[in-house]
Design a protein that fits this description.
The complex is a heterotrimer of chains A (341), B (350) and C (289).
Chain A (H helix, E strand, L loop, with lengths): L7 E5 H8 L6 H14 L3 E4 L19 H11 L4 E6 L6 H10 L4 E7 L7 H9 L3 E7 L6 H14 L4 E4 L7 H14 L4 E4 L7 H10 L4 E3 L14 H10 L8 H15 L8 H9 L6 H10 L4 H10 L8 H17 L1
Parallel strand pairs in A: 1-2, 1-8, 2-3, 3-4, 4-5, 5-6, 6-7, 7-8
Chain B lengths: L2 H15 L13 E5 L4 H17 L4 E6 L2 H7 L1 H4 L4 E5 L14 E4 L6 H6 L1 H19 L7 E5 L31 H20 L3 E6 L2 E2 L10 H10 L4 E4 L5 E2 L2 E2 H14 L5 E4 L5 E2 H9 L8 E4 L16 H7 L7 H13 L2
Helix pairs in contact in B: 1-2, 2-9, 6-7, 8-10
Chain C lengths: L3 E6 L3 H12 L3 E7 L6 H8 L4 E2 L3 H7 L5 E4 L3 H13 L3 E4 L11 H8 L4 E3 L3 H16 L3 E11 L5 H5 L1 H16 L3 E9 L7 E9 L4 H18 L3 E10 L2 E8 L11 H20 L3
Parallel strand pairs in C: 1-2, 1-4, 2-3, 4-5, 5-6, 7-8
Antiparallel strand pairs in C: 7-9, 9-11, 10-11
Classes of the chains: A alpha/beta (341), B alpha/beta (350), C alpha/beta (289).
Chain lengths: 341, 350, 289
Amino acid sequence: MAKVTKVLISDPSLRDGNHAVSHQLSADQIAAYCRSADAAGIPIVEVGHGNGLGASSLQVGLSKTDDETMLRTARENLVNSKLGIHVIPGFATIQRDLSRAVEFGVDVVRVASHCTEADLTERHIRYCRSNGKTVFGVLMMSHMISKEMLAEEARKLENYGAEAVVIMDSAGYYLPSDVKERIECLLEHLSIPVGFHAHNNLGMAIANSVAAMESGATLLDGCSRGFGAGAGNAQLEVLVAVLHRMGIETGIDLYRMLDTADLAERDLLKEMPSISSLSVVSGLAGVFSGFSKHVRRLAEEFDLDPRDIFFELGRRRIIAGQEDLIIEVATELATRKKEGL
Amino acid sequence: MKQAAIQLLQEDCARVAQKHLADLDLLSNATLLVTGGTGFMGGWISELVCHLNDHHRKHIKLKLLARDRARFQARLPHLALKPYVEFLQGDVRDIVDTPKDVNYIIHAAGNPDNRAHTTNPMGTMITIADGTRALIQAAERAADLRMILNVSSGNIYGGQPRELTKLPETYSGAPLCGTAESAYAEAKRFAETLMTAARSQARLPLLTVRPFAFLGAYQPLDAPWAVNTFINDALQKRPIRVLGDGQTIRSLMYGADMALWLLVMLVRGKTGQVYNLGSDTGITLEALARRVAAHFQPCPEVVLNASLSRNIPTSVLVPDTSAAQRDFNLKIRTDLDTAIQQTLRWYQQQ
Amino acid sequence: MKKYRVAILGSGNIGTDLLVKALRSEHLTCVAFIGRSYTSPGMAKARALGVTCSDKSIAYIQEHASEMDLVFDATSAKDHAVHAPILKALGLQVIDLTPAKIGPMCIPAVNLDASLGNDNLNMVTCGGQASIPVAFAIGRTHPEVDYLEVVSSIASKSAGPATRINLDEYIETTEKGLQAFSGAKHTKAILILNPAVPCIDMQTTIFASVKNPDLPALKAVLDPIIQKISTYVPGYRILVGPILENGRIVVMVKVRGRGDYLPEYAGNLDIINCAAIAMAEEFAKEGGR
């Protein structure tokens, strides 16, 4: 494999970060961040509800700002950076959501599915391709299957027309050695570029991103100040600094990147992402990090230990998008607790 | 379909058929059954038969077998009016009898879209296997069957090794075992062997054809093949996007040439023979995109997506077609630029 | 009593499971099982059960219309659009299990009586059959439903290639059904495929944002409706709720199938078939059209 000298950075602060603020980012915040990210030369800026287009819901959380406003605002404030969106079939439909996004001038569409369900993406990817959009395939919760199965699903994305495949460590479960073997396996089976999206539950987000790059990944995701659910994502300004120190080209101006991160801390974040005790549990349990706010709330409502909820969710192999099942688990644990008393 | 579009296809057929009218005399007054009658191949074969009947009095009876009558009426409405064309609604998997008077069969049923194979590899394999089985069992009893042409696939070679510039019919590569991605190619390989077994055991007169890549009318614009996406981009007045570094090499044959080659091989070929079907002139996808762009005013930009591309060896897929040239004097009679131009005109008239 | 004569058009999983259910019914007799190909496992099953089979699709019905009273269409939305006018001209009662939405939507636990007068009934979607009864009860007890949302989780294995490719149509049809039956201003449907092994049973959560939630009133309306559903879908039960959580009304239901042709976990497919059979039996009791 040729050594990676250049990495394409995609910044989902305005999308994954929305999980951390219960999807309450405002148009002004989006505008300010986009201007700053654009000035810093961040190649792709993702915007939207935490679960992407069409996902504002009671299930995951209602957006303060509707999809249309988010997309228009971002579009108006991005000149050089490309405008990206995250799309999960099952949440977003082509007619209701994707066609409008294309109309509003989205540049990069990242079509995502749970890691075993790549064939749900066929029509959405096809739609993007026939409308001339850059489209990446994304496999979420990628730690839940073997590297061989992951490669098989990724090949489906390539066959549908994805121009790159990004795997997400949606639970923040990986160690660098896990990342290395998965990226290498994907590169062996794909002819398109491979990317990695890190979460920081076990403090490995930067290390895992570097391991991915060293294994041949040429797309990396990161958020300013790690803005994301729970323990947050790979902290973008740190990632860029590390990559630059390693001699990897990103096209990003580091000073301006740092300014962007400062702006995010000041104007976007309600609290700094930190590896709380609960985040560690969530990572170890292999449960989607985006659940953390729901778990905390329900633990309080039902007077439960949130750690018990996380481990039970992990035991049931609940996947991203199944937030309603946290309620079921909480009611069940509460009943058990009552009967135990 | 608009009259102008029909006219255009008829011009193409006239141009390519000119030098082979004598070859095609064998089709005179014969009955030809085409499975997959509403597809790309079915459409072009029908156009050529119309030309031969309407202008050269060949009196060919054409039977098109396909599942969807509505699709036939939508795609080939002008053929429904021809007295010598009959649409047979049915699934080839359930064919019990071939038409009594059948002399020639082209088995072209099958969906070559790799996205469908990816989502439904089981269905892909089972359909190909069952369809071929049913057709053989029906054709076995036909009294005056002169040839059955089995449309296989260029995929059965399992890819082109780097040391070969063109793939000859004798190359013995095969699809990889142990991956669902081989589903289509492996099923086509199985179908070839099954047909060959029928030739040996039941003396079924059999010709095998392995198609590569094509362009022209009757292909959907959103088909997953590079040339379609380039044409689609250009028609939508946006830059033509080439995935990767654009150095992948393919070759393209125009629909009219394809139909002519199929019919000539069908009537002149000898049982047991195998021919590649396609153009033997390779072109990089980047060059192809530029050739497409040159047909537009203003000329759209060609964008290579090379920033992320990986250093992987260039993929080449070009058939060696010298056997078809040697045995039947078949040539490419529609050069790439004419093919692109005619294809564009057809799409614009849709 | 003379049994009511039904034909099943579509030999896939849905059609085959319907067949098993129709054969069990005291009121129905299945006179034809019709598909496009004799090679499908559904056809093999039907033949093994001694049912008349045909691969002639709608053409068979055109030729044998006088031998049947009702047609279940379990093909696809696209195909049903072609079949519907033909079946209407033949004067046959139609129960449409595709999301074609040509006839009025029918949820037996909610609008059984009103449905009887229509010659083409649409069974919405599996998620619709599971959630609409609850949505209806919410609408009945709350004059202003701002927003209603339904999330269904099904086992990956219960969604074949056809379901997967038609995900968007599923969402759209379910949302329309929810809106029509609850009167909610906005509705949303979400579908999650979970690959866990052993396969999960179909589970559906109904969320609603309403002004002045009244859980006791809701429960009073909901209980008899649930009672009604369980007469035709034995595996239907409330898992959680109704509760008020984080400002939303939440009701979770679980559907375990009967395991006729499809396995028990595919409650999503079972429920729409149970509803279709329940309606056909009503037509039978009415003595036809």
